Amino acid sequence: MNQAKRIEILTRLRDNNPEPTTELAFSSPFELLISVLLSAQATDVSVNKATAKLYPVANTPEAILALGVDGVKSYIKTIGLFNSKAENVIKTCRILIEQHGSQVPEDRAALEALPGVGRKTANVVLNTAFGWPTIAVDTHIFRVCNRTRFAPGKNVEQVEDKLLKVVPAEFKVDCHHWLILHGRYTCIARKPRCGSCLIEDLCEFKEKTE
Ligand code: SF4
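The line above is the sequence of Endonuclease III; the predicted C-alpha cells follow.
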C-alpha cells in the first residue's frame, strides 16, 4: 500500500471519529492499568461490568491490596483467567506501592516489569493515560493491518514496527483506537462488513464481502 492511501485511510477514520478513546471505563491511570490487565482474552464489556463494582470499593493500590487475592477474585470471577489475573493485580499493587510511590510509572520498562503487563498493555497505558504516540497491536489491529495491507507483518511485533514507521506523527496518538474500533465493528474477524466500510475503495483485501 502506498503512503497516499494510508494517509487517506487515517484521514477518513479521523473525520469519522475525531476524539477516539478506549472502550474500557477508567478515571485514573491506575484504573486504566488494572482494566487493561484484566482485559487480556476478555471483552471490554465484561471488564467494565466487573470494575463498575470493584472501583467504587477500591481504586487505589492500597485499597485493592487490602482486598487480598480472594477479595479481588470475588469481583472479577466473571472474567476469563480470573485466578491468575487476581494474583497479578495484587502483585502489581504491591510493586506500585513499594517501588513507585503508589503511582503508575510513565516508563515502559517499569510498566513491563509489572506482573501480567506485557508490551501491549504498556503501550495502551502509555498511549491512553499519558498521551504517548505508541501503537499497541492487538488481534483486531493485526487483522486489519494485514487484510488491508496498511501495515502487513507476520507477527504483532512486525506490525507494530511497520505502523510506527508509516503512520505520520499527526495520527500516531489516536491510530491505535481507530484501528481497534475498525476491526471490532467493521473489519470483523469472521466476515468483514466491506459493504458498509468507509475505506473499502482504499483497502487492498482480495476477498471483500458485499
Ligand atoms: S473493505 Fe472489508 S476487508 Fe477492507 S477494511 Fe473494510 S471491512 Fe476490512
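Note on the example: The chain has a mean pLDDT of 95. Residues 82-100 form the longest helix (19 residues).
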